[in-house]
UniProtKB/TrEMBL annotation:
<dbReference type="InterPro" id="IPR029787">
    <property type="entry name" value="Nucleotide_cyclase"/>
</dbReference>
<dbReference type="Pfam" id="PF00072">
    <property type="entry name" value="Response_reg"/>
</dbReference>
<dbReference type="Pfam" id="PF00990">
    <property type="entry name" value="GGDEF"/>
</dbReference>
<dbReference type="InterPro" id="IPR001789">
    <property type="entry name" value="Sig_transdc_resp-reg_receiver"/>
</dbReference>
<feature type="domain" description="GGDEF">
    <location>
        <begin position="163"/>
        <end position="297"/>
    </location>
</feature>
<dbReference type="InterPro" id="IPR050469">
    <property type="entry name" value="Diguanylate_Cyclase"/>
</dbReference>
<dbReference type="InterPro" id="IPR011006">
    <property type="entry name" value="CheY-like_superfamily"/>
</dbReference>
<dbReference type="InterPro" id="IPR043128">
    <property type="entry name" value="Rev_trsase/Diguanyl_cyclase"/>
</dbReference>
<protein>
    <recommendedName>
        <fullName>diguanylate cyclase</fullName>
        <ecNumber>2.7.7.65</ecNumber>
    </recommendedName>
</protein>
<feature type="modified residue" description="4-aspartylphosphate">
    <location>
        <position position="53"/>
    </location>
</feature>
<feature type="domain" description="Response regulatory">
    <location>
        <begin position="5"/>
        <end position="120"/>
    </location>
</feature>
<dbReference type="InterPro" id="IPR000160">
    <property type="entry name" value="GGDEF_dom"/>
</dbReference>
<keyword id="KW-0597">Phosphoprotein</keyword>
């Protein structure tokens, strides 16, 4: 997780050397001698935390902080100002620009170490909370919250880029009898295996698999028209069948199977994701009605 990469941005070499000595034992400390240079370095490798001087010849620290806070990729990097500007107004401006802390030079080495340590801990806790709040605990897939956030994002993107967008709704067949026969714990393991198979059947970058509810999953397929969505859905269905998880009380086969509803929107038919989900749900219902273990669009 943490690579302990800290970037010190300061136009004076002696400040950089001092901070390197203060933090070098615990962290991988890199430095930039200007805000411009810092931007180049940050684009190459995101630091875990930035110590930022304010007075620098070209772009100053306030400006750099504002630029970093305005970009999605960099806005979560904690920034600590470390500066000789010591008035309340200056400190207020720094904190309002989005810095997590403000240290006035000359600084005390152990206080700098303690503050850096605390802010890194906070950042890690925040990152962990974010992941947990978006992940389904049983399967490790995206949870419903993340699914709907993602749908909003990809719907906008599909409109902007004029790309097709598809969703799949997947429901495990005869799962109530599975639980009844094999028990709830075996049911959980089954859901984990189904989830893993869904995930590994998807395209890695453009598709997302999520747990929609109980034994239902939803996949969002970016830039996938109906033909491609059908192919991916069929791959998921077949791969789950191939797991050969025994299910003697299934009304389909003596193994676990899934039914899948597919819905797609194209540039001529701009469905909102709510409508896409509704259409996929209808198709899923038809798949169940026609005997399960099949893909219906
Ligand atoms: P169909 O083929 O029509 O989908 O029938 P079904 O039995 O799968 O449908 P139903 O909706 O009646 O049953 C879903 C079952 O899924 C009931 C519920 O106990 C079980 N279930 C939901 N969430 C979990 C879970 O997290 N773990 C386990 N083990 N079972 C779950
Ligand atoms: Mg300076
Ligand atoms: Mg169901
Ligand atoms: Mg079911």
């Amino acid at each position: 997780m943490a690579d302990r990469y800290i970037l010190v941005v300061d136009d004076q070499m002696n400040n950089i050397e001092t901070l390197g000595e203060v933090l070098g034992d615990e962290y991988d400390v890199h430095f930039a001698l200007s805000a411009e240079q810092a931007l180049v370095q940050i684009a190459q490798h995101l630091p875990e935390l930035i110590l930022l001087d304010i007075m620098m010849p070209e772009m100053d620290g306030f400006q750099l902080c504002e630029i970093l806070k305005a970009k999605v990729e960099t806005r979560d990097i904690p920034i600590i100002f470390i500066t000789s500007l010591s008035t309340p107004d200056q400190e207020t401006r720094g904190l309002e620009a989005g810095a997590v802390d403000y240290i006035v030079k000359p600084f005390n080495a152990s206080i700098v170490r303690a503050r850096v340590h605390n802010h890194l801990e906070l950042k890690r806790t925040k990152d962990l909370l974010r992941v947990l709040s978006q992940t389904d605990a049983l399967t490790g897939l995206a949870n419903r919250r993340r699914l709907f956030e993602h749908l909003d994002t990809v719907q906008d993107k599909a409109l902007r880029l004029d790309q097709p967008l598809s969703v799949l709704l997947i429901d495990v067949d005869s799962f109530k009898p599975y639980n009844d026969l094999y028990g709830h714990i075996a049911g959980d393991v089954c859901l984990q295996r189904v989830a893993g198979t869904i995930q590994s059947s998807l395209r890695s970058v453009t598709d997302m698999g999520a747990r929609y509810g109980g034994e239902e999953f939803c996949c969002v397929l970016e830039n996938a028209d109906q033909d491609l969505a059908l192919q991916i859905a069929e791959r998921i269905r077949a791969n789950i069948e191939t797991l050969h998880i025994p299910h003697l009380h299934s009304m389909v086969l003596p193994i676990v199977t899934v039914s899948i509803g597919v819905a797609s929107s194209t540039s001529s038919n701009r469905s909102l994701h709510a409508n896409l989900l509704m259409a996929a749900d209808k198709a899923l219902y038809v798949a169940k009605d026609k005997g399960r273990n099949q893909v219906i669009v």
